[in-house]
Amino acid sequence: FRLFLFILGMFVSCYGIAITTRSLLGTSPIVTPAYAVSLFNIKYLDFGIATFILNALFFLGQVLILRKKFPLIQIVQLPIALATGLFVSLSMYLTQFIHTGAYWWNISLVVIGSAVLGLGIALEIYANLTYMPGDGFVNVVYEVTKKNFGVIKVTFDVTMVVIAILITYFGLGEIFGQCVREGTLISALTVGVFADMFLKFMKYKKQ
Questions:
Q1: Is 128 helix (H, G, I), strand (E, B) or coil?
Q2: What is the pLDDT of residues 23-49, one digit of tens each?
Q3: Nearest to 122 by CA among 45, 16, 199, 182
Q4: pTM
Q5: 19, 93, 115, 206: which has the fewest C-beta neighbours closer than 10 Å?
C-alpha cells in the first residue's frame, strides 16, 4: 500500500507540474532547468526526458558527495528518476486540453497546479519509503553541512531557477520567457503550504 501511495504521489506531483507549465507563466522551480532545455526542441529530448536527466544528475551528486558512505538502498532513486520522467511526459500529454486565456485564468492554473503538486508531495511523504532524487540531494547536503534545512532548500530552488535563466538566455536569447516567470515564484511560495495542509489532513484521518 505504501508503494502504491508513493507511485501515486509521484504521478500526482508530475501532473501538478504539467498544469503549472501549461499556464505559460513558468514552471515549478525544481524542474525549471529541464523545462528550459526542452524549449530547444531537440529531437527525442522532451520535458520528460530532460527531467529524467536532471534527476539522474541529482542522484549522481549524492553519490559524489557521500562516496563510500552512500547507502546502496538509495539506488532505488534511479528507477524513480526514470518513472518521474515518464510521468512528466505522460502528464504533459494528458494536459493538452488545457489552454491559456485571460491572465486571471493563467494564474489560476498556476495555483491549481501548485495545489496538485503539493498533494503529490504529501502522498510521497506520507508513504515514507524513500526520497525523490532532488529531495535526496537537498537532504544529503543538509546531512553533510548541518546547516539550516530551510535555507538549503531555498538556496537549491533559487539555484535551479538561476540555471534555467542562464540556459534560456544563452540558448534562446531571452531571460525569462515561458520558463521562469511569476508562476515560478507563486509555485515556490505555495507548494510547501499546500503539502503541509494535505499532510495535516492525512494524519488527522489516520487518527
A1: coil
A2: 999 999 989 999 999 988 888 889 999
A3: 199
A4: 0.88
A5: 206
